[in-house]
Specification:
two-stranded antiparallel ribbon
Length: 290
């Protein structure tokens, strides 16, 4: 969660001299001395009301050798407090904690990894994650099974602060430096900032978890996916069907969001291969994040 005490660049207080007597009965009247401001040195970021904490993510690992419960660690902010929600609606972008939280779409991906493997071979593939936030989605693919792990994972987001959290999560889970990169990337913009991957060829697989929380994000996301992924590549979208709408959005986006996303994907050359539904309640582990 995030919060900031105020929106200005420094938290200040006004220091007034108390009136030392006289005919004026108002003991709070300031003197003729100029008001001076003191910088309290309070951080203008999440740490006023929240702290990043390490949580353990549990998941099933099924392969030829074993069927076991494994885990990895994620530094994140959970959950949003009323202060964070109010701050998110009013503060400048640098105080937005969206990418620092873990969202339901990431858990859906984790539950579906073993069902994805037969349809989306990941072993030795080059993968890019869009809107990675904490990096939980990409880390799940990298750590779920050593035999089917991608050769390299590019974590991308447009929030530099979230990318620093992602970098720490990669480090704490002991990813080798050559197996991943963390890059700032805005959707729909020039992807040359990614550098080396585009000189060596397109990505084999793209990944995004719970990023289409606003209808206006659909086109920029698919633009970037289409520019990064090979013609025969695969895009994995782990999506919870909810989003913000505005008056400029077409009615079909409101009537059936999932169908609208699939139709828009087709306009960018992305054809639906399969849809994997969430697991039934009895299949869910009791505490995936604790």
């Amino acid at each position: 969660m995030s919060a900031a005490a105020c929106e200005n660049s420094a938290v200040t207080r006004s220091a007034y001299e108390e009136h030392d007597g006289g005919d004026d009965d108002d003991s709070c009247t300031s003197s003729n001395e100029p008001t001076r401001e003191e910088d309290w040195g309070l951080p203008q970021d999440f740490s006023l009301f929240a702290e990043h904490e390490f949580e353990e993510v549990f998941y099933s690992s099924i392969n030829d050798r074993e069927n076991s419960i494994r885990s990895f660690k994620i530094q994140c902010i959970v959950p949003n407090s009323p202060l964070d929600i109010m701050n998110k609606s009013k503060s400048e972008k640098q105080y937005d904690a969206t990418g620092h939280c873990v969202w339901a779409g990431a858990f859906l991906l984790i539950h579906c990894i073993d069902r994805l493997k037969p349809q989306v071979p990941l072993a030795k593939k080059r993968v890019i994650e869009f809107g990675c936030g904490t990096g939980i989605g990409g880390l799940a693919l990298m750590l779920a099974d050593e035999l089917s792990a991608p050769s390299v994972m590019y974590f991308t987001d447009n929030d530099p602060a979230a990318l620093r959290v992602c970098e720490r999560n990669c480090s704490v889970n002991n990813l080798s430096e050559e197996s991943y990169a963390v890059k700032e990337l805005s959707w729909g913009c020039d992807i040359s900032v990614l550098g080396e991957p585009l000189r060596n060829g397109f990505f084999d697989v793209a990944l995004a978890t719970d990023v289409l929380y606003d209808v206006d994000l659909i086109d920029p996301l698919f633009t970037s996916v289409g520019s990064c992924v090979r013609e025969d590549g695969i895009f994995i979208l782990s999506h919870i069907p909810r989003a913000c709408y505005n008056d400029n959005n077409p009615p079909e986006a409101i009537q059936d969001l999932e169908k609208y996303i699939i139709d828009q994907a087709a306009n960018y050359g992305l054809d639906l291969i399969t849809t994997i539904s969430p697991p039934r309640e009895e299949e869910l582990q009791e505490n995936i994040l604790k």
